[in-house]
Amino acid sequence: NTLETVVPAVLGLTAAAILAVTACFCARRIRRQNKKTNHEISSLPFQPPRPPRAVRSPSGQPPQYLKKSPSPTGIKPPPGTVLHNAQSPTESAAKPVVKYSEENEIIPPPSSKLIANEPKSPDIDTQSEQIGLGDENDYGRLGSIVFKLRFLSDRNALVVSVVRCRGLPGRNQTSSSTATDISALPAGPLSSSNGSNTKQNATDPYVKLQLLPDKQHKVKTRVVRNTRNPVYDEDFTFYGLTLNELASMSLHFVVLSFDRYSRDDVIGEVVCPLNGIDLQQIENQQVALSREIQPRNLKIRAQGRGELLISLCWQPAASRLTVVLLKARNLPRMDVTGLADPYVKIYLLYNGQRIAKKKTHVKKRTLSPVFNESFAFDIPTTEGSGATLEGVSLELMLLDWDRVTKNEVIGRLELGGPRSNGSALNHWKEVCNSPRRQIADWHKLRE
């Protein structure tokens, strides 16, 4: 009886233990699977997008989101810059006082030169001025610029106020800055029937200003849209200057047309030597001045385009033409400092089509650059005939480099083409008839 009672009890306990172990094992397995699944989900590469973060400007401006195509609209000068709220011409005549902000003004040491109100890029004024044609005396010219000068003797500072421009040419006349011709501009009043008084014929002008001969301090006004008579009324202060130093300096104004998609077009320039102004008159009082805007290409016409020394060598066995640009001389003065930044582009033409291009390094601030650079061109050959220079020509362009505006073409030269003549034609024939010889010659550049 005792055995019959103990056996069922043992079997029951054993079954209960087996069930408990099985349940515990299943529970642990389920927990492991859940942990593995959660870990895989958290490590997926496709995370939900994060909200965009504002990019803080290093100049301390309020944060703004990056744009795909930024424009110069609304760009403000950096903090700590002295801003002068310029008055209108009528107001400044009655009260010619330059206002200063004592909180934000920067007082430089006497030995330093500092410019106030220098924006990093043209600030577009969205409030376009009503388009006008200016005075009748401006017709047939590139217009004029009005500015004011004042020297603050207690601060050793020169204040230049760019007031306005008048009678600027339309957009269709400034599309090619290197080909501006005064004779091609209208010589009489323009009517709205030909589109001269429409927004399509207006321009987006702004003015760059620098002190010469240093060329170290450059400032610019904002851009005023759709007008040929922009009003700026902007003041720029140059610190650390004395009257004796100003006597050897000049103001260089460059009037440009802003282009969002390419380099800005140069309308013209004005150079105002300060030694021609009574500096005692501008001491602690404002004096208004006006100057005619002059085109740049007139300097090339008056001085000529210079000469280029080139060496050529034709190697028929390798079907290769070697061009060595040695140097140039008698280049025109492309800068108001009397210098230029020349470089040369070389195009290889085959049957009138450009098939290769090379260019030299830029030689800074010189009218007699020495290049000494060699370029090798592989000449295409036809099956069944030897290598020849038939159908081959060279086109050379000497340009003046500019960091901001379009690089201006000083002169051109063609060797071997249908327009090749004079010394260029003789040089090319000699190279063709004397293979494997380096032959050098001087050539005058043409328009």
From TrEMBL:
Comp. bias regions, Polar residues: 171-181, 190-201
UniProt-listed InterPro entries: C2_dom, C2_domain_sf, Synaptotagmin
TM segment ranges: 6-27
Region (Disordered), start-end ranges: 37-135, 169-201
UniProt GO molecular function: calcium ion binding; calcium-dependent phospholipid binding; clathrin binding; phosphatidylserine binding; SNARE binding
Gene3D superfamilies: C2 domain
Domain C2: residue ranges: 141-287, 304-443
Descriptive protein name: Putative ca2+-dependent phospholipid-binding protein synaptotagmin
